[in-house]
Design brief:
By secondary structure, this protein is α/β, with parallel strands linked by helices. The protein folds into two domains: 152 residues, 3-Layer(aba) Sandwich (Rossmann fold), CATH 3.40.50; 115 residues, N-(1-d-carboxylethyl)-l-norvaline Dehydrogenase, domain 2. The protein contains ten helices and ten strands. The strands form two sheets. The protein has a five-stranded mixed sheet. A hairpin with a 2-residue loop joins strand 4 and strand 5.
């Protein structure tokens, strides 16, 4: 089985590393072309790993780029596909799945604290949990790999559960330029309201998240005070952000969320 990872950042780079470590044929494609090797810092252990040469069609392609790269990725995907290939987008958000409708795709989401720093993929904690739409071919991808994978028959529910946390804290962190701990201490009312808005929107998509709010609050209280979502980091560094994919999808359905979205668009335009 041949696996291609498109987007060797904190998520894709680490996923490629772990799949290669358990004996899979793995090629990696980045914005500058083929990636032959990566340096990984897995919590404290540093290792360099080489990947297979980019060649031909692939059985499974994981797309792990930022959402604002998707239009370019969609254009090049067909050259790596055959009629039996599966495309697996692993991005933050909900709205991006519309872009993959013409492909044979399966949904997924991932929980991981990892980013690229000075050319090194740094996974900062032991956290790794991936939900993948139930599929026999995808089970073979992770066969013999010591990774926590859930093959889900209710993948939309799993993705919305993550989106509930990500959309709330990525948006409010970016707006206030403050980490999770500060929000929970100083803006708890807005955190609660934002969670309620996402839960209400999810209900319109047939997903019941009412029991998830307490879990999200508990998770936010238990993670390090200075924890930041990648969107806040991008705002701080004046980089392009995933605002449209993470917040914009909700802003079309909620005046409360749209308040933050419109102001963050202004911040982004002037940065």
């Amino acid at each position: 089985m041949k696996i291609l990872i498109i987007g060797p950042g904190g998520v894709g780079g680490y996923l490629a590393y772990r799949l290669k470590k358990c004996g899979k044929f793995v090629s990696v494609l980045g914005s500058r072309g083929e990636v032959e090797k990566l340096k990984i810092k897995d919590v404290e252990k540093i290792e360099e790993i080489e990947f297979n040469k980019l060649k031909g069609e692939y059985d499974v392609i994981f797309v792990t780029t930022k959402s604002y790269h998707l239009n370019d990725i969609i254009k090049i995907l067909p050259e790596y596909l055959n009629e039996n290939s599966i495309v697996v987008p692993v991005l933050n958000g909900i709205g991006h799945f519309e872009k993959f409708k013409k492909f044979n795709y399966k949904k997924a989401c991932i929980y991981i604290l990892s980013n690229k720093e000075n050319g090194i993929i740094h996974k900062k904690t032991s956290l790794f949990y991936m939900c993948v739409e139930d599929d026999e071919k995808l089970k073979k991808v992770f066969e013999n790999c010591e990774l926590k994978i859930k093959f889900s028959k209710e993948i939309d529910n799993d993705i919305w559960k993550k989106y509930l946390f990500i959309s709330t804290f990525a948006t409010l962190q970016s707006y206030y330029a403050k980490p999770t701990g500060w929000l929970m201490k100083n803006k708890r009312d807005e955190v609660d309201r934002f969670l309620d808005e996402v839960i209400k929107i999810a209900r319109n998509y047939g997903v019941d998240l009412k029991d998830e709010k307490e879990k999200v609050i508990k998770q936010a209280l238990n993670i390090p005070y200075e924890s930041k979502m990648s969107m806040q980091i991008d705002f701080e560094n004046k980089h392009k952000t995933e605002l449209d994919n993470i917040t914009g999808f909700l802003a079309k359905k909620s005046e409360f969320v749209n308040f933050f979205y419109e102001r963050l668009k202004t911040f982004q335009a002037t940065s």
